[in-house]
Amino acid sequence: MKRVGKRGEGKFERISWDEALDTISDNLRRILKDYGNEAVHVLYGTGVDGGNITNSNVPYV
């Protein structure tokens, strides 16, 4: 889904997975170009921890 109205209006349109992934990659490239590598944090895991983030597993934030 892609927002087509102002934020909070709840207006969206369906888009393909290809368009969604292209949008994400375009934005990540722009952010990296404008702000550098430290502007992006990639969070990954096995799913076992339920997405919890603590100082013990993100020591450089």
TrEMBL record:
It comes from the Bacteria. Its EC number is 1.8.5.3. Residues 6-46 form the Molybdopterin oxidoreductase domain. The keyword Oxidoreductase applies. Keywords: Oxidoreductase. Pfam families: Molybdopterin (PF00384). Transmembrane segments: none annotated. GO terms for molecular function: electron transfer activity; molybdenum ion binding; oxidoreductase activity. GO terms for cellular component: outer membrane-bounded periplasmic space. The keyword Oxidoreductase applies. This is Putative oxidoreductase major subunit. The gene is dmsA_4.
